[in-house]
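Sanity check

After download, print the first record. It should look like this:
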Amino acid sequence: MSYTFPVTRTTHPKPKPDQSNLGFGKYFTDHMFIMDYDEGQGWHDARIVPYQPLELDPAAMVFHYAMESFEGLKAYRGKDGKIRLFRVEENAKRMIRSAEGVVMAPVPEELFIKAVKKAVELNKDYVPPYESGASLYIRPLLLGLGEQVGVKPAPEYLFIVFVSPVGPYFKEGFKPTPMAIMRGYDRAAPLGT
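Expected structure tokens:
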């Protein structure tokens, strides 16, 4: 199946954040991917829109029964300037398993991957340079909608992909903590964690 996404470009692009002080999840890019699902049409109306707040009904299933699933992955700029994704296929498969586990309509793997790639492509100017050690964090999000307060699967869903430039996870470098694993003892309960 082929997917195309109409793009509504923002008329007021956001200023680029200071690459040396990104932190995690503080800055968001100009555009995000959105797609709707309902029982009659399945997944439909895929589009790229300016990053914006969502308007949801107070009775949306996501608020009452936590009908929600999300993933997190990163895009990196290589020494050659090329942007690369890390294991996007595995994230797609995991989101499908999560959706099925809470009886939500799963986003097809091919659609998930294409939506992630499109969100990165449209926001490529936010992917930090290779030497910074920073990356572009990608947050695919699946929400159960439908105005009902009753325990049953949601009749509608919203799939969103938005991105955020983030600094290195360990700002001062990776410093492992030494520890010992004692397999002969149970700390909490027999064979507990």
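If your output differs, re-run the checksum step. Summary of this record's structure: The chain has a mean pLDDT of 81.
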